[in-house]
Design brief:
With 81 residues, this protein is mostly helical. It has five helices and no strands. Helices cover 68% and strands 0% of the residues. Helix 1 packs antiparallel against helix 5 and helix 2 packs across helix 3. The chain is globular and about 35 Å long.
Amino acid sequence: MNQNSTPQLLKALKAHQQTLALSDAQFAAQLGIHRSTWVLIKNGIRPLNLSVLGGIARAFPALDAEILNYLRTRDQAGPTP
């Protein structure tokens, strides 16, 4: 996983959560994941996966550009060992 694209996407997600004034539980529900999963992701402990990215795209289409940037830079980094 590209270390540069993950913080950018997480920053955008956190900003979006704050803008919408959603709790962690409410934001996670929008993504279709459990609150504890969102907390681990937002704190950089758990990596983003395609299922979560799909949830972001479905719930928050305004973040599509950030998701695409994340995927492009992740793919350029090559496979993770």
